[in-house]
Structures are given as C-alpha cells and as structure tokens.
C-alpha cells in the first residue's frame, strides 16, 4: 500500500528535489535535475524501485516532524522504548554535484538505527554495481555514479541488492550520511562537510525568507509556500517547474497521470505577481528572463510548456515496469501537451511582460518586439478553437477563457502605447482587436438565461477559469454578469465546499475516462472572486479552510479529495502554492477590503 501523498515532505537544492515520508523513507529523487531519470522511484512502485530509509530499528512512522523555521531543512523525530533520535534531512545548494545529507542525532537514551539504501537508476529499472572505495560505497550504472559515506564510519554491508547499515547513537552523539551523484565518467567531486553544509543551508534560507514583505495573517503558510516556489525553481535558468514529480494520479487507480517536471507559461503571470508582491524582485526578474528566452522565435511556434532551460521537445512515453502510485497507471514521462494550441498563453505572456514593466524590473529591449509579434499572431488566429487552459485531449473548442486572454493581450498593448506613445505599434489596431474580442465573448460566451459565462461558445458547461474574468480586467467585479458567473460556478462546480475545474461528462470535454479531485488553485480563485465582489467574510472563511488542507509541513498537491480527505495529483504543486500566496496578499496585504455584503 502506498503512503498517502500528504505523508511526504520536500527537500531540494533548487536544481532537483526529493520526497521524504513520515517513516523516514526517501521515495523519490531525480538526479541531477528535476526532469532527470529517478534513482529512487518507490513513490510510483515499491521499495525495489529504489528508496533510502533511515529510522530506528523496528520503528514505523515518526513521532513528529517539522521544517526548521524559515528553511527547507527537515527534522524528523522518533520516540522508542530505548530513547529518542532526530534525523535531519536536506540538500545543500550545490557547488558542482548534488548531495543528500541525512544527520542522525541521539536525543535521549540509546537507540539502534538502521539505514537501508536501494539505488535503482532509470526510474527504478537498473540495479547498479556497488563496490567499496576508500571507505565509500560507490554505485555505478551507465552514466550514473553515486557515492555514499558516513561520518563517523558505521558498519555497512550489502544484501539483496541493497546497502545496509546499523549503528547505535547515544544522547548527544551524531552520525551523518552523505549521498553524492556525479557522471560516472568523471572523477568524484570534492566532499562536502555535512555540518558546515547544514549551517550554511540554514543561513541561506533564513536570509532569503527575511526579504519577504508580507507580515499579515497566516504568514507561516505564505512563507512555506514561497520557500516551496523557490525550491521548485531551477536556479541555473530561473524556470519554475510545476511540480517535482510525475504521474501522481488525479484519481486513485485512474489514468489522469501527467509529468509536471517542466515550466508552464500559463503559470507565468500568477507566479510573477506572487514574487513581486512578496518582495522577491530578483526571482521575478529571473523568471521573466527565462520566459523571454524560452519563447524567443516565431510566434507561431509558441508552446504552452518548456523544459527547465527552455527545451522545446518533451516527448511523452510510458514506463511499463512501474505500476504507478496505488496502481494508477500509466506512468508517463514527458508531456504531449507541448504540441497543443492554447491561445490563452499568448495573453499570459503579454500580461507577464506588462506586469514586469509596471513593477520596475529592468527593461529588456526584445520584450516589446516579442509582444508585437505575439499580438500579430493572435490577430490572425484568435478566431480558431483551441485546447484551452486545462490542456484537454478532446476536440478543440472556442474556450471563453482563451478568448478573454486574447483580450488581455490586446488590452495590455493598448495601455502600453497610451502610457508611452514613443513605443512602436498601432494603438488603434490593437484597440479594434480588443473591442472585437470583447464583443464576441459577451455575445457567444455568455448565457443570459442563467446569467453566467460558459466554458465555451454554445456550451452549457461551466469552468472555474471564468472566475478570473474580473481579475483580468475584462469586466469589473460589480458587473451583474460577473456576479452571476461567480454564483453559478460556485453552485455547479462545488464539491464539499471546494471547486472542480469543470462540469458534466469529463471524457466528452477532455477525452479521458474517469473523474478527478477538486482543484485547489480553482478554489483560491473563488476566494479572490468573493473578495473582489465584496463578500469578504465568506472569502476569509474559505481561505481558512484551504490553509487547513496543507499537510503537517505546510505542503499542497494539485488536487484534494474532500470525501476521503486525501491530497491528489503531483506534489507539491507550484500552482496551488502560488494561489495561496496571491490570495493571502489579496485578502490581507492591504488595509482596504471589500464591503462585506454577507454573501
């Protein structure tokens, strides 16, 4: 039986990340990058697919665990009949090679501790050759090499294609394990000192979190979300991955399993907004610059998702030897959505660059020319159907949110030209496009009988993305059509107080069988919409409920099953944490609030 998704905590070095369970087992790690093949893949299979557990002998789950304040350093503690220990897990910000450091400290009594390491390269399929070299255990298979050492050395042996250690720690004693990866054709990289690395990691994280400008309610949840976003940032390029995992299911036992270890343009405006409002201008600028590099080229070739460095080819294939989380198959690597047409991303890119400009980030000369190219493409293509925000694998449709974001692109261009007439461009041309799109959406995407916008033209379905209409500025929050849409979405998409993405037969819409959980970011959008329309008390209550759904260390997956009380989907999910940050800043970041109408 797989561990619940919410049983995991995250550690990482801003180039890759690992998931550590409550029982001390490290069940997921891709080296050397987020999108590399996993060497620990028990998350999607079992222990024979790779894991590393450190815990007291014969112990099960821990007694307690927590991140050290304002950091990504995880402490896990066990209480046994013989005493208590603490295991401190972290990944130092790397110099050359990625390291996983696990420090065991005796807190009370005398405790026997076991370490079981099973390295399985290539997503759990390749058992390495392991040998002893100068007191290290060295595992090699193909391009991968991993070195394991302990300080001080402890008794270690090989058995059943695993590396086992057993030792006793007394109160005040410490044993540190360091696992280091490097390409097998290169020499072993310099050794890191585990205790110096721990001190420096804590200093680095606390210096970073001290820059946060938010000091309102639920600051701990906001800080944890910002740390998570920082951890999901690929430091060499500034790209932010949607999640560090692949194929965690949106429905247990279902097929809605996707690889999220890439960077989506749809997240760009909301990510940029969260970083800017929280005071992280350097990270916002790095993300903006990643965006400019990734989308450079012909506007017709714009993709919805790119690799960590802006790679364009992300071929999707299935791994047959992994059964999937709780037998939720298939396990997918890569993402076929890279080939989809989603018109909304053009608006999101233009909106992101406009936001960066308004926020005072250093100007990039190519940014405005890029926006003009994207607008020219939209002027020719905006009437076409597309796959929409949710990357449906069913027929293309005229999705209302996609058209709204076309309007956003034209609107931001008009505003830029009005503010700076020296910029090249035809304001009348973009104003005409903006007005035409607005008129068509209000005519074809609105159901006057139900007083709500719909998911697509001529459809009766609803979609949670419609909640973003006032946020985008397409209509003011007090417009009756906006209020009606919010009420309709809330009534028809609500499931135990949380929102689904869309209604009715999902297979007809997205081409896939089965159902899915409620989408957490959609419910954050509902909080924002309620607040914007003056229903602040309801917004606060719903936000409190959402914060309560974080796991014991403050992390959120993509979705939530309110019936079973379980998190679903890839974990932790950047979009969910972006939603938490932006909603907290909207509710509590200013002194002014909407007038409470009581709902």
Automatic annotation (TrEMBL):
State which Enzyme Commission number(s) the record gives: 3.2.1.28
InterPro entries linked: 6-hairpin_glycosidase_sf, 6hp_glycosidase-like_sf, GH15-like, Trehalase-like_N
One of the GO BP terms on file: trehalose catabolic process
Which spans of this chain does the record mark as coiled coil? none
Per UniProt, residues of the GH15-like domain are: 216-584
Check the record and name the Pfam families matching this protein: Glyco_hydro_15, TREH_N
Q: Which GO terms describe its molecular function?
A: alpha,alpha-trehalase activity
Q: Does the keyword Hydrolase apply?
A: yes
Supply the enzyme class, top level. hydrolase
Give the catalysed reaction(s), semicolon-separated: alpha,alpha-trehalose + H2O = alpha-D-glucose + beta-D-glucose
Domain Trehalase-like N-terminal, by residue range, is 3-149
Q: Does the UniProt entry include the keyword Zinc?
A: no
Essential cofactor(s): phosphate
Give the pathway annotation.
Answer: Glycan degradation; trehalose degradation; D-glucose from alpha,alpha-trehalose: step 1/1
> What keywords are annotated for this sequence in UniProt?
Carbohydrate metabolism, Glycosidase, Hydrolase
Q: Where are the transmembrane segments?
A: none
- Give the similarity note: Belongs to the glycosyl hydrolase 15 family.
Q: Under which name does UniProt file this protein?
A: Trehalase
- The species is Streptomyces alboniger
């Amino acid at each position: 039986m797989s561990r619940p998704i919410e049983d995991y905590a995250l550690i990482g070095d801003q180039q890759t990340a690992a998931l550590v369970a409550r029982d001390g087992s490290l069940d997921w790690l891709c080296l050397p990058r987020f999108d590399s093949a996993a060497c620990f893949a028990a998350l999607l299979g079992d222990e024979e697919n790779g894991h590393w557990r450190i815990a007291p002998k014969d112990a099960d789950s821990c007694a307690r665990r927590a991140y050290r304040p304002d950091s990504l350093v995880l402490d896990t503690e066990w209480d046994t009949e013989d005493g208590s220990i603490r295991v401190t897990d972290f990944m130092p910000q790397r110099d050359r090679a990625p390291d996983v450091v696990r420090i065991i400290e005796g807190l009370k009594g005398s405790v026997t501790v076991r370490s079981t390491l099973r390295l399985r390269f290539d997503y759990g399929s390749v058992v390495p050759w392991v040998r002893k070299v100068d007191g290290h255990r060295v595992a090699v298979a193909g391009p991968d090499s991993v070195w394991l050492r302990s300080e001080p050395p402890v008794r270690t042996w090989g058995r059943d294609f695993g590396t086992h250690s057993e030792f006793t720690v007394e109160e005040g004693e410490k044993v540190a394990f360091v696992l280091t990866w490097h390409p097998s054709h290169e020499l072993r990289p310099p050794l890191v000192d585990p205790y110096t690395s721990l001190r420096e990691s804590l200093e680095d994280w606390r210096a970073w979190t001290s820059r946060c400008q938010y000091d309102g309610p639920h600051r701990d949840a906001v800080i944890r979300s910002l740390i998570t976003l920082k951890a999901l940032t690929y430091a060499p390029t500034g790209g932010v991955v949607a999640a560090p995992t692949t194929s965690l299911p949106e429905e247990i036992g279902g097929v809605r399993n996707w690889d999220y270890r890439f960077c989506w343009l749809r997240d760009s405006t909301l990510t940029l907004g969260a970083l800017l409002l929280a005071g992280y201008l350097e990270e916002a600028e790095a993300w903006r610059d990643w965006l400019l590099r990734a989308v450079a080229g012909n506007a017709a070739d714009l993709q919805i998702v790119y690799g960590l460095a802006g790679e364009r080819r992300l071929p999707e294939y299935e791994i047959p030897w992994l059964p999937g989380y709780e037998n939720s198959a298939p396990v997918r690597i890569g993402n076929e959505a890279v080939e989809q047409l989603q018109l909304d991303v053009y608006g999101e890119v233009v909106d992101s660059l406009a936001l960066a400009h308004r926020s005072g980030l250093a100007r990039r000369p190519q940014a405005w020319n890029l926006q003009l190219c994207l607008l020219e493409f939209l002027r020719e293509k905006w009437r076409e159907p597309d796959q929409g925000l949710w990357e449906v694998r069913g027929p293309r449709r005229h999705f209302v949110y996609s058209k709204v974001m076309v309007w956003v692109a034209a609107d931001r261009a008009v505003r830029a030209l009005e503010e700076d007439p020296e910029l090249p461009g035809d304001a009348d041309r973009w104003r005409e496009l903006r007005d035409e799109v607005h008129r068509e959406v209000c005519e074809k995407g609105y159901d006057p009988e139900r007083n709500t916008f719909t998911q697509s033209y001529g459809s009766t379905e609803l979609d949670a993305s419609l909640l973003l209409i006032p946020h985008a500025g397409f209509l003011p929050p007090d417009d009756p059509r906006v209020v009606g849409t919010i009420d309709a979405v809330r009534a028809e998409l609500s499931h135990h107080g949380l929102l689904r993405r869309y209604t009715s037969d999902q297979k007809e819409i997205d081409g896939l069988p089965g159902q899915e959980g409620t989408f957490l970011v959609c419910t954050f959008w509902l909080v924002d919409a309620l607040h914007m329309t003056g229903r602040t008390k309801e917004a606060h209550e719903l936000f409190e409920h959402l914060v309560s759904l974080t796991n014991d260390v403050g992390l959120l997956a993509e979705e939530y099953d309110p019936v079973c009380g379980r998190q679903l989907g890839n974990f932790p999910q950047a979009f969910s944490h972006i939603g938490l940050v932006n909603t907290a800043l909207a509710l509590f970041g200013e002194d002014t609030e909407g007038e409470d109408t009581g709902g």
